[in-house]
TrEMBL record:
This is Sec-independent protein translocase protein TatB. The chain crosses the membrane at residues 6-22. GO terms for cellular component: TAT protein transport complex. The Tat system comprises two distinct complexes: a TatABC complex, containing multiple copies of TatA, TatB and TatC subunits, and a separate TatA complex, containing only TatA subunits. Substrates initially bind to the TatABC complex, which probably triggers association of the separate TatA complex to form the active translocon. It is a single-pass membrane protein. HAMAP family: TatB. The lineage of its organism: Bacteria, Pseudomonadati, Pseudomonadota, Gammaproteobacteria, Kangiellales. Belongs to the TatB family.
Length: 119
């Protein structure tokens, strides 16, 4: 919510600043005030952009979840679902075979190390 400052109020503030600070220090004070105001404006703008990005990201995640749910509903009972189920079963079987092979490799490596130690 922007400040509702009219020309008369701004003129009054400038006259008071001139009286309090004097003509020597007023330009430096105005420059410092301008820097602070610029930094504050950039900070607020960056915050607003970040909030907007977060809101857009949340909206995209929600839409993605809705699309995934819709695709799953459409795929249920179709050939695509059957293929997916078969693929998952094959992946699980391959992972089990991989684990068995790793265990066999470990045990044979251990046996080889033991036989080398006995020599």
């Amino acid at each position: 919510m922007p400040f509702d400052i009219g020309f008369a109020e701004l003129l009054l503030v400038m006259i008071l600043a001139l009286l309090v600070l004097g003509p020597e220090r007023l330009p430096k004070a105005m420059q410092t005030f301008g820097r602070w105001a610029g930094k504050a404006k950039r900070t607020v703008t960056n915050f607003n952009h970040q909030v907007n990005r977060e809101l857009e990201l949340d909206e995209m995640k929600k839409k993605l979840a809705e699309h995934e749910a819709m695709i799953k509903r459409q795929a249920e009972g179709t050939d695509l679902q059957k293929l997916r189920d078969e693929a998952e079963k094959k992946i699980q079987a391959a992972e089990a075979a991989k684990q068995k092979a790793e265990q066999a490799l470990k045990s044979s490596s251990k046996n080889l190390d033991d036989s080398n130690k006995q020599r």
